[in-house]
Amino acid sequence: MNNTALSSRPTGQPAADPALGSQLTGRPPADPAAGNQLTCPAPADAAAVSDQRGRRRSAPLWKIRGWLSQRTYWALAAVGLAVPLACWTMLTALGSVNRVFLPAPNDVAQRLLTWFSNDDLLADVGISCFRVVAGWALSAMLALPLGLLIGTFRVVQALLEPLTDFVRYMPAVAFIPLVMLWVGIDEGAKVAIIFIGTFFQMVLMVAEDVRRVPMAQIEAAQTMGASRPEVIEKVIIPSSKPALLDTLRITMGWAWTYLVVAELVAANSGLGYAIIKAQRFLQTDKIFAGILLIGAIGLGMDQAFRLMHRLAFPYLHVRS
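Given the sequence above, the corresponding structure tokens read:
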């Protein structure tokens, strides 16, 4: 039967029954109202939609790796710093601990003001910062290329990584007599102690950062004809830069922990020297002031590194 025969129906003949057509074709009859439902959906409840959008905007604080606004982050950070200070103030105000052993926060603040006005606090801060930064920078200058070689070539890893693992477990304090014999007792000895305390850990951390570069990226570059130096320059180093900056930030904190040890070597200035000198005269308020000041300087440097990371690699800090 052709299309002409199907279309040449007399005008007076009634239309075909949809149910009959469904029996012949095996399909359910079309609902005339279905088209209206598809094209003109019923409006949703405005309150439900707004509530759903509000829940989407206010993500839960305990979401795994969730996003926090800057205002929320700094508010929580302020609470985290204020709670220990409040507990310390309450403990000393109750008089349950002798202030010789645990001075009050106002005593520490007063000692800090006296240190600033009478004992040249800025000079102590400056010389300590110089020693820490010099030892850390010397470590970075040697650890970055060495860690790159260890993380890239298995031959260098087999040759140097066991030795580095062996030396890094030796306490830096034990090297003080040798440093005094080899370097002397001037500024070089303080820098050398900080260098010994940070260099070997930094080498291994840099090597791990380099090893975390995906092998697929290296193989893709080799497939496109990149030479060995080009793979290192254009694939491995750019891919590991964010992790390397984090490693430098962490090892800067380690360098500050070796400051007091470094200033045991015939020092007559610096924050660590002031702490050791205050210990002899049982000036615990000055000890607390020096410790808190080192922590504040370290926190400032840490935040500076974090800011550098956000500026250098903004694509890693985009809200998902």
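Residues 33 and 39 are 10 Å apart (CA to CA). Try to locate this feature in the token string yourself.
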